[in-house]
């Protein structure tokens, strides 16, 4: 009986820690998406702006991968809901499409997708904070 209580106590304390990590990851992702819009403007005004925008895009992709991992961790060991995994995987897919549309200079897809990613990330940040 004592052993079961110890396991349950660990289980309940792991959930809030995983949720906090998920919140932090989504906040970092939202900040990275916003920073990408800033570097897009710098790309048009500075001679080295494209380097900043390119570095930011790969950084954002890595953050999206981390978001998937954290969503999995918040779900499985913590017993949280599985919905954040779908959001994280969808965002990773869209970020991957965004990176490739930028690499192939598909501006007609790249710019609207960037606006949609920023809006979706901000909405998801507010949703997950509740």
Q: How does this structure look, described?
A:
The protein has 130 residues and is mostly helical. The chain contains 4 helices and no strands. It has helices at 2-45, 49-75, 83-103, 107-129. The model is unreliable at 4-11 (pLDDT under 50).
The low-confidence parts are 4-11
**Total number of helices:** 4
Report the count of strand segments: 0
Can you give the helix content as a percent range? over 70%
Order of helices and strands: HHHH
Q: Round the Cα radius of gyration to an integer and report it.
A: 18 Å
Shape summary? elongated
Give the percentage of residues in beta strands: under 5%
Q: What would the average pLDDT be, to the nearest integer?
A: 87
Q: Quickly give the structural class.
A: mainly alpha
Q: Give the assembly state of these chains.
A: single chain
Largest sheet, in brief, is: none
Q: What is the rounded distance between the termini? A: 35 Å
What is the compact description of this entry?
This protein is mainly α and 130 residues long. It has helices at residues 2-45, 49-75, 83-103, 107-129.
Please write out the topology:
Blueprint: H1 2-45, H2 49-75, H3 83-103, H4 107-129
Helix pairs in contact: 1-2, 1-4, 2-3, 3-4
Features:
mainly alpha, 130 residues, single chain, 4 helices, elongated
């Amino acid at each position: 009986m004592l052993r079961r209580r110890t396991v349950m106590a660990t289980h309940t304390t792991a959930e809030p820690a995983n949720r906090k990590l998920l919140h932090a990851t989504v906040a970092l992702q939202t900040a990275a998406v916003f920073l990408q819009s800033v570097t897009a403007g710098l790309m048009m005004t500075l001679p080295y702006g494209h380097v900043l925008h390119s570095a930011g895009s790969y950084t954002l992709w890595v953050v999206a991968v981390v978001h998937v991992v954290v969503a999995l961790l918040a779900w499985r060991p913590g017993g949280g809901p599985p919905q954040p995994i779908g959001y994280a995987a969808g965002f990773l897919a869209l970020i991957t499409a965004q990176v490739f549309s930028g690499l192939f200079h598909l501006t007609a897809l790249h710019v609207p997708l960037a606006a949609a990613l920023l809006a979706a990330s901000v909405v998801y940040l507010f949703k997950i904070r509740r």
